[in-house]
Amino acid sequence: MLPDLPTTPVSTGGAVRRLHGRTVLVLDFAAPRGPHRGRRFRVEDDHGTTGCSRVVFNLDGRAALRLPPWAARQTSGLVRLRLRPLPDRRNHRVPADLDRALTAADLDLAHITGPELTQMLEMIIEAGDAAVRADRITVVVRAIGQAAAARKARL
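RESULT FIELD:
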């Protein structure tokens, strides 16, 4: 499992893969789930001399990330690196169209974690097409409704 605490770095390797014209690193960890989805990590070279931040995402059940700059020219093989989770410091501004949809469905954001909210908001914000954005808002509202129902069932 990927580390949770910012004080706990982990050394690992990632296999370079090409997917739909993009190069990614597939890590030796299961894909992030639950509160770990959408988590940003500090990614450093194996010597800790250079680094960047990346979101670790799910790729066929495995954790993956975009290639860091120092490995950008690598097209195959293994990249050695260190990962350290970063605290979520972003201000989560809910877009007006999502807020209206949540209000219409009588829902709020109390039933999801910070990383889940981050992933949902980024999914909506990055949509350039209005129809795609509307579809994504529908999916997010449905997911929040399911989380609310699951929470109420546990109480």
